[in-house]
Amino acid sequence: MVISKRPLHLFVAFALAIVPFFSSANTVLDSAQVVVEETHESHVEGHETEEPLSKKDKVNAYIEHHLQDSHDFNFFSDEEKGMHYGFSLPVILFDNGLQVFSSSKLHHGETVAENNGNYYKLYHGKIYKTDASGELTFDEHHHPINDKPLDFSITKNVVSMLFTSALLLFMFIGLAKSYKKGPIPTGFGRVLEPLIIFIREEIAIPNIGEKKYRKFMGFLLTVFFFIWLLNLLGMTPLGINVTGNIAVTVCLALFTFLITQFSANKDYWKHIFWMPGVPIPMKIILMPIELLGTLTKPFALLIRLFANITAGHVVIMSLIAMIFVGKNLAADMPISLALTLFISIIEILVAFLQAFIFTMLSSLFIGMAVQDHHHDEHHSEDLLGDHDNAIV
């Protein structure tokens, strides 16, 4: 197998080109420090009062912040000084032209960011257009009604997906190059090859068929390793929860849906719109049910991945929070750490299991769409022929 070096050179050139862009996003943030707000607003009869957050409220806010995407990375915090340490990411907005600035200008929603005469405010992870005072207008449900510019920002989830994609390119290009030296891979390729053979032998061939599986192996390998690496990355202290983001799981399931529908043969569509072997009234009844089934299958994919990964993060963060919420620190800390370690080990298994299940179900749905169906009438004729031969 011969792989051109040009894509790798282009990728390295692109990575070097965006390094100054990332570094310039951190210059405004002195010593990479941002201040976290320790109070919350309660709106009573149109008046705003500030109340100190309790420990449980702080824990809930931290878990919610961990699960959500953000415009910066936070490595650790100093609660006594009210400081968070990390680095900012570029904010890219389309509002009367392209607006690019560092997320450090937003200061976690505490200040108003000004860029080219436009003012922006961060509220609950979303950027709204405002004036110099930074005041937002709310509806009766306390939802901002200010205009939202088109947000193409490089958030921490985007950085994580770019990093995972680059890692996949590095691993598989290295595996392909190792085959030039002989039939047995070298280095890290010895770890990748059994996984690739496992996906081929246990997922692709049994569900799609030996004649048609090769066409879909690229997608199956990509989605398996992409989800698996993102799940493992989400277990690091960086606070990344990519596969727990419903938008990411929707996109992954959408790829499976599109590949399934555009690869389907005529037998697949015939079984949906005019199922053979059943009475005509039943065909009319089954048609909308089968058509709805084409949508519920990818929906089950995205919800399964999103719910399991999110639940795992919530459980781990809640167990860690027992140390700070409990009254007896000496008794609560060993129990909390032991349970957290136990759940974390299970999460490592879940990280692989969810990638495997998503890939397996994707191959199953694709296999159902491309397989050759044997109609009931042909099967009945074969049975009648065998019965006549037996009588003779």
Would you mind describing this structure in some detail?
By secondary structure, this protein is of the alpha+beta class. It has 2 domains: 121 residues, no CATH class; 221 residues, no CATH class. It is 57% helix and 14% strand. The protein contains 10 helices and 11 strands. The strands form 4 sheets. The chain has a 3-stranded antiparallel beta sheet, with no helix packed on it. Strands 7-6-11 form a 3-stranded antiparallel beta sheet. It has a 3-stranded antiparallel beta sheet with strand order 8-9-10, with no helix packed on it. The N terminus and C terminus are likely disordered.
Throw out a few tags for this protein.
disordered C terminus; 2 domains; 392 residues; 11 strands; 10 helices; three-stranded antiparallel sheet
User: Structural class, from secondary structure content?
Assistant: alpha+beta
Average pLDDT, rounded to a whole number, is: 75
**Sequence of secondary-structure elements:** HEEEHEEEEEEEEHHHHHHHH
Compute the number of strand runs.
11
Largest sheet report: 3 strands, antiparallel
The percent range for helix content is: 55-70%
Count of separate structural domains: 2
N-C termini distance: 58 Å
**What is the strand arrangement across the widest sheet?**
1-5-4
Estimated radius of gyration: 27 Å
Shape: globular
Low-pLDDT windows of residues: 1-50, 376-392
* Count of helical regions: 10
Oligomer state equals: single chain
What portion of residues belong to β-strands? 5-15%
